[in-house]
């Protein structure tokens, strides 16, 4: 298996399935931070130690298979071009931070792209599990299985009182971050979400943009995740996060119904106007594209537009700067990207 497959396909195989509440929750993710005992953590470790960790993981796990997910492909970050790194970040298979540690950094990615294990990012290992829709418990169960599978050959840094030891104190304990990606256009349009965020934060849950901490919430997409890892079990963290997400789902559905009743033709005009712009524009920047796709996705969810959600998901990834330049096989100026983005969108929507 070559890493080319991760570059060529905008949509990961698991994204083609419709999970529970998929009209609002696009995906569920569980990430486990782990460090190896007897090694300094990546934030202070010398390159020689980190390269030893990297080489060990490659030897033991490259092409190793985990259940039905298929063989894991070992990818050394230093072997990737700048554009290839951007593509993997845009698919959420690696983090922006990992790309800045090229010499000692690597990743293991399963054939179905449901499992991604980052090596020598902030911690020695960052295990990520993805599921479509609202399936946090299933993601946690599988993450535990992968964690146990890895632990057969490695010894984790663990303290009986503090739990798993990590580079960042906020991850000590379970070392777990659970999150869901939510599409919340109605709560944004009605200006309810900004009023809800302080209350959500008070519950130990944080609302971030599409690429996590420090990123912008483009296209009304928000990452909802836990803040606390110490002093709570994985089960309790998941239960608390599920409670918040269920409330957000309920509020978003209520807001969508209210918008449809109060705005009527006005809401339909906004949705179909965005569809028309996407179909016929010759120039389209990332921010406008995200907004227009959000409107169309809302129209699909409200059964006003007959279009596959998978096409919209594919367009969201396929038209990111890295993907556009990868398929163009050259570096593009912002203007050239905007022109190519509009062309790709037109072609996909015509095919649909």
Automatic annotation (TrEMBL):
Regulation: Appears to be allosterically activated by the binding of pArg-containing polypeptides to the pArg-binding pocket localized in the C-terminal domain of McsB.
Catalytic activity: L-arginyl-[protein] + ATP = N(omega)-phospho-L-arginyl-[protein] + ADP + H(+)
A Gene Ontology cellular-component term: extracellular space
Pfam families assigned to the protein according to its UniProt record, in alphabetical order: ATP-gua_Ptrans (PF00217)
Gene Ontology MF terms in the entry: ATP binding; creatine kinase activity; protein arginine kinase activity
Record: residues binding ATP: 27-31, 92, 126, 177-181, 208-213
Annotated Gene3D superfamilies: Glutamine synthetase/guanido kinase, catalytic domain
Transmembrane segments: none
Keyword terms of this UniProt record: Allosteric enzyme, ATP-binding, Kinase, Nucleotide-binding, Transferase
Sequence motif: RDXXRA motif of the pArg binding pocket involved in allosteric regulation, positions: 337-342
Superkingdom to which the source organism belongs: Bacteria
Record EC number: 2.7.14.1
GO biological process: phosphocreatine biosynthetic process
Domain Phosphagen kinase C-terminal: 24-255
SUPFAM superfamilies: Glutamine synthetase/guanido kinase (SSF55931)
HAMAP family with a match to the protein in the record: Prot_Arg_kinase
PANTHER family, A to Z: ARGININE KINASE 1-RELATED (PTHR11547:SF38), ARGININE OR CREATINE KINASE (PTHR11547)
Similarity remark: Belongs to the ATP:guanido phosphotransferase family.
NCBIfam families named in the record: PRK01059.1-4, PRK01059.1-5
Protein name (record): Protein-arginine kinase
């Amino acid at each position: 298996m070559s890493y080319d497959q991760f570059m060529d396909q905008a949509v990961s195989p698991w994204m083609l399935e419709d999970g529970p509440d998929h009209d609002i929750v696009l995906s569920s993710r569980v990430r486990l931070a782990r460090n190896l005992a007897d090694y300094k953590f990546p934030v202070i470790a010398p390159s020689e130690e980190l390269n030893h960790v990297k080489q060990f993981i490659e030897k033991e796990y490259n092409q190793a298979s985990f259940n039905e997910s298929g063989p894991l492909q070992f990818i050394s970050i230093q072997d990737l071009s700048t554009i290839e790194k951007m593509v993997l970040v845009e698919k959420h298979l690696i983090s922006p931070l990992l790309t800045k540690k090229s010499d000692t950094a690597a990743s293991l990615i399963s054939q179905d792209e449901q499992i991604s294990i980052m090596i020598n990012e902030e911690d020695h290992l960052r295990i990520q599990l993805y599921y479509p829709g609202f399936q946090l418990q299933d993601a946690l169960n599988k993450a535990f299985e992968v964690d146990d599978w890895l632990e057969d050959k490695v010894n984790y840094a663990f303290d009986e009182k503090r739990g798993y030891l990590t580079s960042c104190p906020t991850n000590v304990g379970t070392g777990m971050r659970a999150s869901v990606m939510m599409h919340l256009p109605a709560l944004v349009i009605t200006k309810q979400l900004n009023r809800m965020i302080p209350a959500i934060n008070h519950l130990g849950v944080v609302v971030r943009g599409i690429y996590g901490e420090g990123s912008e919430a483009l296209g009304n997409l928000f990452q909802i995740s836990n803040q606390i890892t110490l002093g709570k079990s994985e089960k309790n963290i998941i239960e608390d996060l599920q409670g918040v997400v269920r409330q957000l789902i309920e509020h978003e559905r209520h807001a969508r119904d209210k918008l449809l009743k109060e705005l009527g033709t006005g809401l339909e005009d906004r949705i179909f106007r965005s569809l028309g712009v996407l179909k016929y524009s010759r120039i389209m920047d990332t921010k406008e594209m995200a907004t227009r796709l959000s409107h169309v996705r809302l129209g699909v969810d409200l059964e006003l537009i007959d279009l596959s959600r998978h096409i919209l998901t594919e367009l969201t990834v396929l038209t990111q700067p890295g993907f556009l330049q990868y398929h163009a096989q050259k570096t593009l100026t912002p203007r050239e990207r905007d022109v190519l983005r509009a062309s790709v969108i037109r072609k996909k929507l015509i095919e649909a």
